[in-house]
């Protein structure tokens, strides 16, 4: 390794100091889902980022989805999927599969990956410790939960024990009935309940684009007001709507910084949080 390479490496590491000081001891919620979850190498790089953040003292919480995996399992079982406004219509059979996939396969897979990297991680869903309490959002959607409360005690207990909480978006109602929750919404509510310093959505797109078909048209920063205007004029559409709603809700709920970044870029999370390089769209009040 020559001196120039050493200098670049040292520069990158020292550049992280002010960012580590900013986030150490604070809550950072990272939402991981969609396509960025299906590639094993990418998955490993995301878990490395989460672990590194934890090791430098950030109270990092991983909230995950797994829509594509749920679709695969439902297909294999010949159960049809229907979505209304981006939410999966969830009957009892579908709920069983959602719980099996999210709280089982994916949640334990992420915990195993973090453990294999040498981290301490504990997986839970919203049922555990009454973490995410819900009521049925709309009977037409079936067992889809609207969040009433996030009981942050169990998150704090895990963090105090040195664990990275890994949370899947399944909630519980008054009768003990499990409900399906959109993972972006779960991450938003968890971040708001924790008054988090930062919430990061890892998507499969660079952020909010001026023209969704032009990857070079990334909007680097948006206020709540600007975001509403882009929704009204149709610039923000489809699957981006619930995501930006999550961003603006989180800001209104007291989360200080909210980002949408491309989780398909290796180590996007570390680059966004610990370097001068801003990758995605940052939301502010
Ligand atoms: N202005 C916009 N900027 C970026 N993406 C947009 C925009 N308007 C609509 N979209 C669509 O939103 C999609 C992202 O939402 P979604 O697929 O639900 O993400 P995820 O699977 O990561 O939760 C993009 O792939 C894009 O097709
Ligand atoms: C109610 C509802 O739609 N729940 C989602 C939960 C998973 C999710 O949100 O996963 P991604 O983040 O990967 O999209 C679903 O059943 O697909």
What does this structure look like?
One of its GO terms (molecular function) is acetylglutamate kinase activity. Catalyzes the ATP-dependent phosphorylation of N-acetyl-L-glutamate. It catalyses: N-acetyl-L-glutamate + ATP = N-acetyl-L-glutamyl 5-phosphate + ADP. The structure is a single chain. The protein has 285 residues and is an alpha/beta fold. The chain has one domain (3-284): 3-Layer(aba) Sandwich (Carbamate kinase). It has helices at residues 3-23, 40-55, 67-76, 92-116, 153-160, 183-194, 224-232, 240-252, 268-274, and strands spanning 27-32, 59-64, 83-84, 87-88, 121-125, 132-136, 145-150, 164-168, 170-172, 178-180, 198-203, 221-223, 257-262, 281-284. The strands form four sheets. It has an eight-stranded mixed sheet, sandwiched between helices. The protein has a two-stranded antiparallel sheet with strand order 3-4. A two-stranded antiparallel ribbon has the order 6-7. It is globular, with a radius of gyration of 19 Å. Bound molecules: adenosine-5'-diphosphate (ADP) and N-acetyl-L-glutamyl 5-phosphate. Residues 33-34, 65-67, 70, 87-88, 98, 144, 169, 180-183 line the site of N-acetyl-L-glutamyl 5-phosphate. The site of N-acetyl-L-glutamyl 5-phosphate has 15 residues, from helix 3 and strand 4.
